[in-house]
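Re-run requested by the PI after the first attempt was lost when the workstation crashed. Everything re-entered from the original request form. Ligand of interest: zinc ion.
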Amino acid sequence: MDKKGDKMTKLSMNKFINMTVSDMNRRNVMEPNFDKYPTGVNENKISFTEYDDDQLMNCPICGFNCTHITGVEVFARGEDAEEHIHTAVDMEEMSTKVENVKGHGRNPSGRRDGLILSGYCESGCKFDIEIAQHKGNTFFKSIKTGKIKDD
Ligand SMILES: [Zn+2]
């Protein structure tokens, strides 16, 4: 007589990973990008200045409340899909670019959808604000991308 559980297959971790990867290849999906998983310390946190009943976004790098958003990128991807649609709007150049991208590209999410807001503050910081979908949470991460030149 079969005992309960006898039909379950026990797999070594290597066998499990190999099966999972070949299943992903069959379904035309890619492995998650573990580099983009939200770990570590986010040093540049977004804060707001209360202004009457409104909120002003402070520069995520230096905290100054005079900021400008100059670009938006949208990454539309099904979970672990091999390709995603990257839409980039450059508000300074007044241009929009839409393309299919294989792999992770600039998508801040290692597995799903993402957004990047690009901008600068009036004290000279340039920044990207990355917004990444990760399971049931939406993560914000800000990155200094340079300084605005004085002249
Ligand atoms: Zn700043």
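Saved to the shared folder this time. Residues 13-26 form the longest helix (14 residues).
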